[in-house]
Prior knowledge:
alpha+beta; globular
Amino acid sequence: MPVSLQEFKAELFRTLGHEVRVRLLEELREEEHSVGELQGRLGLSGPNISQHLAILRNQGVVLTRREGTTVRYSAADSRVYDLLDDARAMFERRI
């Protein structure tokens, strides 16, 4: 657990600092998904997706919900999308 705001921010940005994790969050923006659904949408292997989702979950960025034998993922706090939107705006301003 970070002891300062700066440490929290640094850890959050490290967690978001991988393209696959950003893509996963973008897929989770509108609705929750299972690993299998995300695999089909992103064209990545299940183990790869699971590994990145575990990192996001361990850092409190995504939540899980069981639906029978399926685990469904969603964003823990929708404000993460404000960060992604701001990053998009910065990118668009740059190009």
